[in-house]
Amino acid sequence: MDAQRAKARPGARRPLVALLLAAPLLWMSCGRPPARVPAARRAEPRVRAVLQAHAAAARPAPPSEGSVPLLLVADAAPSAPALEERPPGATPPEIAVSVAVPFAPGVLSDVRLVRLRDGRGAAVPLRAKPLAVWPRGRSIRSALLVFRAALAPGERAIYTLDFGAPPPGSPSQHAGPPPAQAPRAAEGSRASQAPQAAALDEALLPSPDGPIAAVLPPSWYAASRVCGPQLPAIDDRRFPGFESGIERALARMTPAYDAYGVSCAGAHRTYYDGPHALYQRFLRHGDAPRYRRARAEAVWYRQHELRFSPDRRLAVHVCEKEDWTPAAPLSWQVLRRMLGQGMLDDYLLTGDPAAKEAVLAMGEALRLNLAALTGGKEDVLRATERNMAWAVMTLSSYYALDPRPELLSALRGLADRTAAWQQEGASGAFEHDLHRADPTECERGPRGGSPFMTALLVDALMDYHALTGDPRVRDVVARAAGWLAERAITSDRRAFRYLWGCETDAYDDSGTADLNLLIVPVFGAAYALTGDPRWIDVGDALADVGVKSMWVKQPKHWNQAMRAFGRYLGYRAALAGPAIGGQLAAGR
């Protein structure tokens, strides 16, 4: 248990290593300081120049037309056929490359308004299809693009992705043969080709683990808000200790992160949604190695932790009883292992249909189970904030890929229950019986709350708000933030009480300050929704303590620190420009 672990941990912690003198640039190797990066992976001057130019021109939201650099890296994923070694000077063969490109709400309405140019400016034949839309406005949230490229092993290339209205004089998006059949231009005329619009191909299949990875700058991922607000790691000058500490912990974890397996009773590698945490890490760096690592974790989860029904319409975690049906409430342990956010990330950033299948199957299992979860002797979802949080996350992910009215109705029903739950008490907490949730942690606490579980619920509500714009979320989040800042904080104001309202233990101990990184995103969300900068002041002070107290020696705790703190940095980044509350409310 986190509380017992914290109390058993020595009070004096070794300070974190100082800020790296030269932080890794985008598109470099996975999480290592520059001195340790193999020469083959260092950012060439041309790559660095393109990156810096794009970052300098980045806006809070991308324009409705423009361009973005696309980096191709022939790194040969372990699960893909290796690129063939060829004699020096030999031309490598062309192979298919796929990439999922996210777009902010309102930016792109038609994938046929996307074009691709190689490093010499020549048009590259391109096929495309939408992967998902933003439910409000129906603009494209992510699009799958497939094209062919020729790179030797270890080689890199910078292509340019254009989007929006075609330039004057370009061919019609409907004219000419499909890109895969387009004749290849003579070498001397390639650079003079006019950009060619993508051909819509609904049958397009992705190749997310091919030998050539294609990634975008982190500034693009951040602006797209495809997986929530983000701040590129290279731009995080406020909490450099987090950036160095979280990377160092992942590299030095003993036993290694991927050595952990499935545990239905204790900590395991995907606790707190390992795929989501690793994709959040990738989005903030935008490099191929981090993409490969997040991708591998998502595939591992599906292969080892999900059990599908024979018709594959339903999926539950393998820790659920084998004879489970939707007539019986899902167990609390299983609810927290239904990783809708991570599977949604995997689909939106790779286009893998197996990820979509997992999101839909977990979502449908939960939707059919809602009556049993909420209509029995107790409301299981209100037994702890975490239970409601995972349910909202799972259904929000489902609705993001299948925005049907009945799913929206189910989501709104959970929002209704959440708002009413908070209103039943005067504290701003989601009050519940702490003893019922875990008798070993509180012998008596009939009306208490859990700050770290509340943070998970707020994170889920922000996913729901991004899809629906439900105005009630603003007040719910602001009340929760007020409770955390005034009542659930420890008396030294350095951390949050592990449990609030426990009559047999006040939990007035800041030894759990490592949980701050999971909790402070609540203040970022409150700022995003209200525009009140005082929430960032509160969040920053507690984040400073949380960074110094990071305890990330196991996958559970690494995921805990990584899964939402990047979102906090994304929320607070708006302090440097227009507040994003209006954008969130408008769904733009």
Can you give keywords for this protein?
single chain, 588 residues, alpha+beta, globular, disordered C terminus
Your description of this structure?
The longest helix has 23 residues, at 353-375. The chain is of the alpha+beta class. The two termini are 41 Å apart. It is built from 19 helices and ten strands.
What separation lies between the terminal Cα atoms?
Answer: 41 Å
Number of strands: 10
Structural class assignment? alpha+beta
C-alpha-based Rg, rounded: 24 Å
The overall average pLDDT, rounded, is 85
What strand order characterises the main sheet? Answer: 3-6-1-8
Q: Looking at the structure, what is the overall shape?
A: globular
| Proportion in β-strands | 5-15%
Number of helices: 19
Helix content: 25-40%
What is the makeup of the main sheet?
Answer: 4 strands, antiparallel
Task: Report low-confidence residues grouped into runs of 5 or more.
Answer: 3-43, 171-192, 578-588
In short:
The chain is an alpha+beta fold and 588 residues long. Helix content is 40%, strand content 10%. It has 19 helices and ten strands.
Would you spell out the secondary-structure blueprint of this structure?
Elements: H1 2-8, H2 45-57, E1 66-73, E2 95-102, E3 114-117, E4 127-133, E5 140-149, E6 156-163, E7 199-200, E8 213-215, H3 218-224, H4 240-252, H5 274-285, H6 288-305, E9 306-308, E10 315-317, H7 332-335, H8 340-350, H9 353-375, H10 385-401, H11 405-423, H12 434-437, H13 451-468, H14 472-486, H15 516-519, H16 521-530, H17 534-548, H18 555-573, H19 581-586
Parallel strand pairs: 4-7
Antiparallel strand pairs: 1-6, 1-8, 2-5, 3-6, 4-5, 9-10
Helix pairs in contact: 3-5, 5-6, 5-8, 5-18, 8-9, 8-10, 9-10, 10-11, 10-13, 13-14, 14-16, 16-17, 16-18
